[in-house]
Amino acid sequence: MHARRARTTVTAALAVLTTLTLTTGGACATENDTGSGTPPTGGAPTASEEAAPPAALTQPAGIEELSAGWSMPWGADWLPDGSALYTERDTHRIVHLTPDGTRTVLGTVPDVVHGGEGGLLGLAISPGFAEDRTLYVFHTAANDNRIARLTWDGDTLGGYEPILTGIAKAAIHNGGRLAFGPDGHLYATTGDAADPPLAQDRDALEGKILRITTAGEPAPGNPFGTPVYSLGHRNPQGLAWDDEGRLWSSELGQDTWDELNLIEPGNNYGWPQCEGVCGEPGFTDPKETWSTATASPSGLAYADGSLYMAALRGQRLWHIPLEGADTGTPQAYYQGEIGRQRTVLATPDGTALWVSTSNGAGSDTVHRVTLQ
């Protein structure tokens, strides 16, 4: 999801469609909004969402429905021709979507077992797709979560082959996002599988961001010589790289704080010892936090100086301007207009976003958001 993007022409700042004061509260940030226990030590938000939008940065300027009738679209990535492939979590289907809204089901992925938050989740298209016709998926199987590769020759979806297995599965906290980084390696988010101590176990695959080769091996330069790239995550679901190659990740908190993290190799992001800002040696604090009621984040995309974060329970699109390795004031758009937002992609030319919802079988949509 790091597709190469052209810089867009920036116009005068746009009035905020929705401005919100950060709220605290005891609602859980699992995607089904059900309680999961008492929160650990937490911290205050790193910024208010109340200021005027920043000038001279691309912002959302309008939203329109591109395609309707979906069933829980989850992962997505761009093909070289500017169309996209999507997964559907519960149907196990891979679906092709063109910029004019034409939708074609390519087929189903074998060995997928849906249950709770599990199923067919992330999708990443090989950087060399034009030659190798390969795509990668993250899915729940009978006994684990796994990463597998397939081929699509334009007609047939086949060649299914698991490349990394044994990631613990659960009804909740499966992670599941896949994306190729600028370095050509495959990154994956994994949740703690409802077993929080796993996030602090450096040898476990759960509660982590993983970095692997296309063969499923630990990528060269990984901090521990394993697939683990960073640890201490509860349920990260968004991955995006900015123009300087910095990796950002959005993460579902428990009862109080959701997070946006700047990911560094080998760093520990605190879960379950901390939710939100920790302020303790050995743990890396988030760059931004939100109450679970206003976020419960999923997908993340970067375009022209800003991150865009899809919110499930918050039912809004967060625009987060970047100032180098720091963040400006987040702004919320389209609150309650299209329901729960799952995945956001920045178009390859950087002029728009494709935002998919997560509202239920047959009732989901993909929207195009024009950037100005």
TrEMBL record:
Signal peptide extent: 1-29
InterPro entries noted in UniProt: 6-blade_b-propeller_TolB-like, Glc/Sorbosone_DH, Quinoprot_gluc/sorb_DH_b-prop
Keyword Signal belongs to the record: yes
UniProtKB keywords: Signal
Glucose/Sorbosone dehydrogenase domain residues: 72-362
Region of interest called Disordered, as start-end residue ranges on this chain: 26-56
This protein's name: PQQ-dependent sugar dehydrogenase
